[in-house]
Amino acid sequence: MLIDCKFSSQAEVIFENEAYAVLYKPRGMPTAPLSENEEGTLVSWFLKRCPEAVSVKGKKDIEAGLVHRLDTATSGLVLMAKNQESYDALNLMQGNDLIKKTYVAFTDIDNESDLNADFSRLNLPYRISSQFRSFGPKGKKVLPVFYGMRDFSSTAKIYTTNIIDINNLDDSVPRVTCTLTQGFRHQVRAHLASIGLPIYGDPLYNGKFKDFPQEKIEDHSYPLQLYAVGLSFPEPKRDFKLEDSKDYVSFLLQPPDKMIL
């Protein structure tokens, strides 16, 4: 389903049925509350609209049927289950890499990166796989830990970002499309920066924006050019089992063709 969305500053229900809802989260709105009764998050907004979903027991009680998160500064699609059976099915899918998320990012080119690649000759899809560790003041940033690095662990989870398209390489701001199934905090941002494609407007991973006003960093109001444009997953039918993963549903926002500042 191709959706014409204007990437506005307001949350929207893109699609819903009795099992789940696909929501649009605007930039600057937190996905989930950090404490009970916190207002201004996508989850609290949706639960006011759909109070019956409050009873869903998700990863945390205050998150209800939230299946996955977006960084506060990222705008795009988020999946919410509306009942317990649907949440359990969607959570099972996510744990088995059956929910695919698609992102579009406008980036800079960092010629001093460790990769220093000729992106016009990059074989696509290009796979970036790593573990992560927190670093920096208060652990607000994450650092990819690749195989062979000192901190790499044989038991820690590995997260993968697949770059499937790079457009506008002749421009100063290339547009990168990538996919993932299971995500880590800041995964796309840190992975793209690690190969020399830091996202435009990112004060944490793009050195050009490191002097962005601290108050805007704290309230996530910086113009991060990262958009969660696609979701694809099996329809969570009653009594869902992994072998039922044949009938996929897909939702795709019309990707922006230029930056939204």
Automatic annotation (TrEMBL):
Coiled coil ranges: none
Gene3D superfamilies the record matches: Pseudouridine synthase
Domain (Pseudouridine synthase RsuA/RluA-like): residue spans on this chain: 20-194
GO biological process: enzyme-directed rRNA pseudouridine synthesis
CDD domains, per database record: PseudoU_synth_RluA_like
InterPro entries to which the protein is assigned, alphabetical: PsdUridine_synth_cat_dom_sf, PsdUridine_synth_RluA-like_CS, PsdUridine_synth_RsuA/RluA, RluA_PseudoU_synthase
Pfam family, one: PseudoU_synth_2
One Gene Ontology term of the molecular function aspect: catalytic activity, acting on RNA
Protein family: Belongs to the pseudouridine synthase RluA family.
Protein name: Pseudouridine synthase RsuA/RluA-like domain-containing protein
Species of origin: Treponema denticola H-22
